[in-house]
Design goal:
Nucleoside Triphosphate Pyrophosphohydrolase; 7-stranded mixed β-sheet; 148 residues; alpha+beta
Length: 148
Amino acid sequence: MAVRACGLIIYRRLQSAPSSKVADGIEYLLLQTSYGTHHWTPPKGHVDPGEDDLQTAFRETQEEAGLQASQLTLIEGYKKELHYPVRGKPKTVIYWLAEMKDCNTEIKLSEEHQAFQWLKLEDACKFAEYEDMQATLKEVHQFLCSKE
């Protein structure tokens, strides 16, 4: 049985970016785990019994980053499923895309994470050391830029 987790790739648009360069004004939220290799990841976690995948993504985001569903706008048309092994067992992680309604909203970390960063695409890819996460961030960025 594959382990299943769900989360949100959260971004914000900085108001100061010139409108001609929309892509320059986008930053992604990554959290640094307080366990293991202290890797950086969007908020995500395991599906609880009786929960659907999207409920899990919002619950985990609230637990790990202190963000309520009401503070985010779910972006239609983007959903990504990643598959990789963790300790020899298959894992599936499903991500949706969400925009911060107010780019100045405070992030409140749980004990699971020791730091957070708002990062432009290039830096987010450096922080997210896993290739599939880097590819997902680039895909999200293309998706957002193509919608403009």
